[in-house]
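Q: Hi! Curious about what 16S rRNA (Cytosine(1402)-N(4))-methyltransferase RsmH looks like structurally. Here's the sequence.
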Amino acid sequence: MEFKHTSVLFSETIKNLNISPEGTYVDGTLGGGGHASGICERLGENGIFIGIDRDEDAINAAQERLKGHSCSKIYVRDNYSNIKSILEEQGISEIQGAVLDLGVSSFQLDNSERGFSYMQDAPLDMRMSRDDSLTADIVVNEYEQKELTELIKKYGEERWASRISEFIVKERKKQRIRTTGELVNVIKAAIPASARREGPHPAKRTFQAIRIEVNDELGQLERAASEFIDVLGEGGRLCIITFHSLEDRIVKEAFQRRVNPCTCPKEFPICTCGKKPDVKKISGKPILPSPQELEMNPRARSAKLRVIEKKLR
Ligand SMILES: C[S@@+](CC[C@H](N)C(=O)[O-])C[C@H]1O[C@@H](n2cnc3c(N)ncnc32)[C@H](O)[C@@H]1O
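A: Let's find out. The predicted structure is below.
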C-alpha cells in the first residue's frame, strides 16, 4: 500500500526550524517523511538527520522516500519520548532542531487493518506500535463505564459521551465488541438521530478519544516537550504541531514554564529563586494554516504550530 500523507504547515515548519546545513535535526514523528524531506533537502553532507517513529510502516516508507538525500540519516523505531536515551545511544549530546507533528498519519487511517478508521471495518486495534499491549479492543470491552465516559468526554470532547459508554457497556454484556464496524453501530445507536444529522461522522470524536487513550498520546507529549528543549543546543529550535486543544495546552504550558521559570510569589518585588529562562518563544501566538492550505487539506483544520528557541548561554 502506498504511503499517502500530506504534511501540514510544511513551509511554516521548515522555515521556523532555521536549518543550518551542518546541523543535527530530529523528526520525532517521521510518518511518511514529508517534513523530513524538507529538512534533509536543506542539510549538507555533514548534516545529520534522525527520524523517529513508533510505527514500523512509517519508518520503512520514510527510509524509501529520503534515500536520495546526501546527509547522514539515522532511523529509530521508538517513542519520541525516549529522545534522551535515543541521542545518548547515538553519542549525540545536542541537536540544532526538532519537529513533532502529532497524531496519526493518513496512511495509518487509510490502512484498514490498523483499526483507526470508522470508515472501514477492521478489528479494534488502533496501536501505533504493534509492540504495545493496550488495544482499542481492551479499552472498549474492559474499561469501567465511568472511565469510558470520562475519556470520551475529555479526549473526544463528545457531548454524548455518557450515552455512548452506556450503550457500549450494554452491548458488550451481550457479546464482546470486536470490530470498528460494530463499535460505529453502537455509537450511532447512542446518539439521537437529530444530532447525527449535523456535523462530522458520529463516531469521529469517540474514535479519536480511544486512539489517544490507546497510544497514551498526551502522556508521551507531556514527558517529551521539556526533554526536547533540554537537548537543543544554543539557538536550536523546536517546532510542535498539534491537532487537539489538550495537546496544544500541554505544549503551550511546557514552553511557558521554560520562558518564565521563576517560582517566586507574585508579590515579591524581585526574583530570589534564581531560575532564569533558557528559551524564547519565536511566535507569541500559534501559527495556523493559510486559507489556501485549508482548502487543499481539510485535515489541517485544527492544526497549530508553536516554536521555541534555546537561548544563547
Ligand atoms: C501526523 S504523522 C507525521 C507525518 C509527517 N510529519 C509527514 O510529514 O509525513 C504522525 C506520526 O507520528 C507517529 N507518532 C505518534 N506518536 C508518536 C510517539 N509518541 N513516538 C513516536 N512516533 C509517534 C505516528 O506513528 C505517525 O506516523
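A: A fun detail: The first strand starts at residue 24 and ends at 27.
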